[in-house]
Amino acid sequence: MQPFLDRDCSLSLIDIIIFARSPVRGAVKQRLAATVGERAALAVHRKLLRHTLRTAVRARGLRPDLRPVLWHLGPRPDRDLPAGFPGRTEAQPFADMASNLAASVARPALEGRRGVIVVGSDHPGLTADHLLAMAGILDRVPVAVGPAEDGGFWAVGTLVPLDHVMCKVPLGAADTRLHLTNVLERLGLAYGLGPTLWDVDTAADLERWGKELRLPRE
Fold first, then answer.
1. What number is the average pLDDT over the span 57-71?
2. Among 3.90.550.10, 3.30.70.330, 3.40.50.300, 3.40.50.150, what is the CATH number of 16-207?
C-alpha cells in the first residue's frame, strides 16, 4: 500500500483540538470529587488542562503545521491559557460529548487546514512526542487512533470526515476503541494506532499520578 500523503501537507495545518470542560467547581471530575472533594477535583482538572495546553504549544514548536485549538464547554478559561497561546478558543456547540466529538471531526479540511487531532485534557502522561506521533500517522494514512488504557481512546486524528463513524461508537464503554476501529475497518478506512495513555478519573488514578501531588483541602 502506498503511503497516504497530501502533496500540500507542508502548506496546510493540522488542528490539535483540545476538548475540555471549563474549570468550574462542581462541574468537573465528578467521579474524583466524590472521594477527594470538589475543590481538590477542580485543582486536578485545572492542572491537567494547563498541562495539555502547554504540551500542544510545545508540539507546535517542534512541528509548525500543528495548531492548538481549545474547544471549551462553559466559560472561556482565560486564566488557564498559556501566555501567548498561539491557537484559537471556541465554545463547544453542543451540551453532550458525543455530539461535540462528531462535530469536531465532521469537516477536518476547513479554513486552510488539512486535518484535525482531537484530544482529551485529562492525560498526565501526555507529551509533545505523543502528539507528533499522531501527526506522523496522518502523514501515512487518513485516520489515527490513540488508545487509552481503559479501553477508550485519548485522541482521534483524521484527514477525512468521521462524524458518520463517531455516531456508531458508544463512548465510555470498556471496548470503545475496539468499536471505533471495527467501524473504520468495515468502511475500508485505513488507520494507524498511536501510543497508549491513561487518564485521571478516580482516586486510584490520582495516586498513580503522584503521591506527592499537593491538593487544597475542603
1. 96
2. 3.90.550.10
